[in-house]
Amino acid sequence: MDAIDGECVRVRILQTSACAACKIAGHCNASESKEKIIEVFRVADSARFKVGDTVVVSASVGMAMQALFYGFGLPFIVLVGVLFAVYAFTSDESLSAIAGLAALVPYYAILYVLRDRMRGKMSFEIE
């Protein structure tokens, strides 16, 4: 546990690659680890925790599927849809590819603007 701020608890995790446990991982560039902070919102009983506690953070399968859809599924649909639509009107492959990629810019901008609303729907829990 990294910090407690009212009903928001910040948990520091160490994300490691699959080969980080290998005995020769220190000599290999493939193994890597990153430190990340996860914010857990709406923790009603945050007073029972203190900074430095070890906790288990979980997410539901439905939330994970929803995050994958918004992060990868829907952008893929937008990319392919714009790609085919522009190609159907112009018959120019390079313009279609550029338009498809350019369509992702407003998509991710909208996703960024709506992050607080999505945070209310998708959140982690402390077990």
Concise summary:
With 127 residues, the chain is an alpha+beta fold.
Structural class: alpha+beta
pLDDT < 50 stretches: none
Beta strands, count: 5
What is the average per-residue confidence, as pLDDT, rounded to a whole number? Answer: 82
Overall geometry: elongated
Radius of gyration: 20 Å
From the N-terminal CA to the C-terminal CA, the straight-line distance is 13 Å
Helix content: 40-55%
- The oligomeric state is single chain
Count of separate DSSP helical elements: 3
Order of H and E elements: EEEEHHHE
Would you give an account of this structure?
The chain is α+β, with helices and mostly antiparallel strands and 127 residues long. It is 46% helix and 19% strand. It has helices at 61-90, 93-113, 115-121; strands spanning 3-5, 8-16, 33-40, 57-58, 125-126. The strands form 2 sheets. A 3-stranded antiparallel beta sheet has the order 1-2-3, with no helix packed on it. A two-stranded antiparallel sheet has the order 4-5. A hairpin with a 2-residue loop joins strand 1 (3-5) and strand 2.
Short descriptors:
single chain; 127 residues; alpha+beta; three-stranded antiparallel beta sheet; 3 helices; 46% helix
Q: What is the element layout, followed by pairings?
A:
Blueprint: E1 3-5, E2 8-16, E3 33-40, E4 57-58, H1 61-90, H2 93-113, H3 115-121, E5 125-126
Antiparallel strand pairs: 1-2, 2-3, 4-5
